[in-house]
């Protein structure tokens, strides 16, 4: 008779203890009939791993926790939920029986860090210190030593907000490319006049795209206010509630300006959906201040020598939009925070901005998908009710640990992909366009006697229509004859030939 596989690890703990947690990305099983580990990567990014019988262990809490830390990594959400439900007794027994165990000590340290409670423990003499996160598996913050447990605390956040990022081959490759140095090199190579025009494009593209993602068409004053805010990104200012409030007041219409973090529960629904269904329900208002402190702490890692600035900026900026501290403007603020932290960490040169929102706008479906991977499973777990007018929401249970801890690897990979596209495609395309335009302008000014605004418009229209002036636009140039139009079309086509082949 075939023996059934035994589920172990984090998902086994969730199931057996009915923990209020999103499933771990890894599902582990002991399959005694196997002789080697069988690992299956699923299309949704989850992983199923079946271990041979030699990996089996006693069916105890300490057995599962040791297996988790040894083979599955660190899942703070599951640990926080578990420690809330089962208390300290079993951990205390584990520490008493095996005081030198690295896994018991890490669990003891995490219990105290997550709960604020204290365990009874005495470290055996000569015990070596061990890290919470394996540096080969995760990107880690500068370690702080917990002398009681001889544990090196290298988590990047706080007990209220701590995203983890795995060292995937894709992230390692992007970091080795040094995209920040690449944009600095490109801009430094430009002559002053072209540099000024390129930077003007970067700000304009970022402003337009950040509003377009929200399906918002700002008036000229709001657009200009946002651009001026982008120019201030990276200023040395305290990242605190008042600063975020000031930024929010710049970005949103004046009637939607807020004076503090939200004091009420908010939720998001797509247009056209039932008024009684939510796509995302952010954390409870009472949790916002502590979570935002955690977001700020993660953001400070942009100045760390050990944590890549782009990863810290991505984790903090996406964390901001997950906390959703305001009723309006959170999406634009999340992207502005990304720019602020990238410049603060030296990734973006002073005075410049990477048009990452333009890249995100082109990858809007993927952008929505990575946001949904965080929001959908959490919202699906909540038991909530909206009143008949959808003005009030009642939620039965909404623990902090459901929101505070998550795997940010996919978010960081998406951010790097957008940064690379913005640098290598969007910026490169704009520079190629400006050079083609300058070439066409130089050719036409040699012989075509026309006012500058008219000449610039003619070049732009011909370039936009692949070398031909359309009949609809022809009427805007009554003083330029047909032969001159044909000559202009030929020369603009010559100037833009290389650009169109890109």
Written description of the protein model:
The structure is a single chain. The chain is built from 20 helices and nine strands. The protein is α/β, with parallel strands linked by helices and 502 residues long. It folds into three domains: 1-77, no CATH class; 179-419, Fic-like fold (Orthogonal Bundle), CATH 1.10.3290; 447-500. A four-stranded mixed beta sheet has the order 1-2-4-3. α3 (76-86) crosses α5, α8 (192-213) packs across α14 (356-362) and α17 (409-445) crosses α18. The longest helix is centred in the C-terminal third of the chain and has 37 residues, at 409-445.
Index terms:
Fic-like fold; four-stranded mixed sheet; elongated; 20 helices; 502 residues; single chain
